[in-house]
Each structure stands twice: as structure tokens, then as C-alpha cells.
Amino acid sequence: MNGEGAASAAPRATRAPPASSRTAQVHRVTRETDVRVWLNIDGTGECRVRTGIPFLDHMLHQISAHGLIDLDIQASGDYEIDDHHTNEDVGIALGLALAQALGDKRGIQRFGHFLAPLDEALVQVAMDFSGRGYLDYGLVMPTERVGTYDTQLVREFFMALASNAQMTLHIRQLAGLNTHHIIEASFKAFARALRMACEIDSRRQGEIPSSKGALTDQQALRNARGT
After folding, report:
1. What is the pLDDT of residue 206?
2. Can you list the domains of the chain with their CATH numbers?
3. How far is it, in rounded angstroms, from Cα 41 to Cα 101?
4. Residues 112-121: pLDDT tens digits?
5. Percent of the chain that is helix, strand, coil (3-state, to 5)
6. Could you tell me which of 220, 93, 115, 103 has the C-alpha nearest to residue 171?
């Protein structure tokens, strides 16, 4: 959401960034939510998250653990309405933090993909840090909720993340009967694909991995920092 204004105070997610790593920090406040994200792409999987949505916290831990990204995400929101705004705004802030940490994307692999099994579930994720936000979403949920979490919010989270990370993202479900397994497999596959796409390609020698020489909409990032 784009409205400015006061929201309930959220615990601070503030770290001193290691000098040699790709880090970013985003603080996004609207009339509905207050979200702080700090991340280190070159991390070890250290994770501290509290969004007020327990199942989303569990999935964010998957991104950190399997993507080897250090994450500190603290959020508060209008939970008395539902979890939609907070879920979406966490995705927005995380996407912005990824885009800022990657900068102009010099030297990265750019593309990532992974096929993750979780018991009977099998989910494939492919991504491209193309500079264009896009989501093609193919998960089919057998149930409407996992605990108190509305399963429609999975798509909303990934759409917000992909758009703000300037990432093309495809998520495909090849098998699955249990809703929790399907969602968790998608987050694990996303994490491993993200790790691959963000890895430094030594053969690139610091060049931008694009024939046109640019992969980042810098104006969009500047606009996002100003909101």
C-alpha cells in the first residue's frame, strides 16, 4: 500500500552492515503497517523475524536458512482487519532490500532455479534479476488456511517481493497434497534459486550480466527510497 501516516511502532531492525558484504536496510511506514527489514546477501542464514504472522515468520526462516541470507525483519500492522496488509508490505520491503543490496547487479549469476521436494510436494522455482518485476504463479492449495494463515497470501507475498526486487519469478507445482508442504517447498525452492542468482560469477569480472548493459531501474529504486 502507498499511504503515508502513523502505524503501531515496530521493534527496530537495525544492524551495522559488514564492510565487505552486500547489505541493505528498509523502513516502510504506511497507515496500515510499520515494517523494518535488514538483510545481508552474503550471510550464513542468521534469522530474526517477527511479523506478527507466525506462519509467515516460519517461511521467512526458510528463505534465510536455505538462501544463506541473514535476515532481520520486524513488523506490526492492522491485524484486527486481517493479515493481508502486513503480509504484502513485508514482501514489498524485502523486495526493495534485495534490489538495494544487489545494486546494479555487477558480477552476479543473475539467473537461479531449484526443484525442491518436501515429502509428497514438489515445487520448482526459476528467477531472473531482469530489472522487470513479474510473477507467474502455479501453486494449487488444497485448503484455504494453514492454521490461521490465509493461503491466498502466498501469491500476494511473492507478487510484492518480485515486483519490488525487479525480478522475474516463476513458481510451478509439480506435485503436492498437503498445503503446508506445498507452501514450504515453494519457499525453500525460492531460497535456493535466490542463492544461485545472487552468487558472484568469477568469469564476469564485475561486469553487468546483460547484453544491453543494465539490469536495474535506478529511478524506481530512488523513488522507493523517497516513500
Report:
1. 82
2. 23-225 (3.30.230.40)
3. 7
4. 999 999 999 9
5. 35, 25, 40
6. 115
